[in-house]
Amino acid sequence: MEKYSIFEENIPTKHREIISKLINKKARKIIRYSWEPPKIAMEKWDIPESYVFNFTEGPLLLTLETGLVVGFHSQSSLASVTVWIEETEDKKSGKEVKIADDRELFPIDSCDITYSPKEFQSIIGQEIVSIKLLKRDPENAILEGLPREAGLLLKFKNNIEMVLSHGLHDYCDDFSVLLKSQILPEILPQLTELDMNF
């Protein structure tokens, strides 16, 4: 089996080793790194105030109780969410400038009482009990040749389900961080939930 660098952004099935490190671990911190300040993001992309964390543009970093920092984003060219190790437990990184140190990005914490929904404010300190891959049916011949790993469904011990998503709340190509209930109803029949088979 071909090996991929853990520091290289790739689709979830190419990084099962990373995904497996999340299971039964508690989330210490979850931060979305917005390309725009929250107020500007609200205006630019017409986002309700309490959902800027969900729908702004930019990557997400999840820090576990172990100190491991895992990054998530998405790529239109793959029609998929992507994952990588941003920082190992012993502080190793594959980047010259880590996302958390990038002064051009604007961090929004999942616990932010203004810009994050109350459900996401409640998952810090909660254990990730399961992770499922959401594979999307192809809508055309071009998409048929792409991975279409359109979402990762993380279920926490308090039953909150967070979806790291590629365009599942609308028909765009953007990365979004959703509650499962925010997946567009007409997209739901196109999705297959798959265990990651650890």
Radius of gyration: 16 Å
Shape: globular
Kindly estimate the percentage of residues that lie in beta strands according to DSSP: 25-35%
Tally the helices: what do you get?
5
Secondary-structure element string: HEHHEEEEHEHEEEE
Helix content: 10-25%
The total beta strand count reads 10
Task: Please mark out the parts with pLDDT under 50 across 5 or more consecutive residues, or reply none.
Answer: none
How far apart are the termini? 15 Å
Main sheet strand line-up: 4-3-2-1-5
Instruction: State the oligomer.
Output: single chain
Q: Major sheet: size, sense and barrel closure?
A: 5 strands, antiparallel
Write up this protein.
This protein has 198 residues and is mostly beta strands. Helix content is 13%, strand content 33%. It contains 5 helices and 10 strands. It has helices at residues 16-20, 38-45, 52-55, 118-121, 141-144, and strands at 27-34, 60-64, 69-75, 80-87, 106-109, 128-136, 149-156, 161-166, 175-179, 191-195. The strands form 2 sheets. A 5-stranded antiparallel sheet has the order 4-3-2-1-5. Strands 9-8-7-6-10 form a 5-stranded antiparallel sheet. The radius of gyration is 16 Å and the shape is globular. The two termini are 15 Å apart. The mean pLDDT is 94.
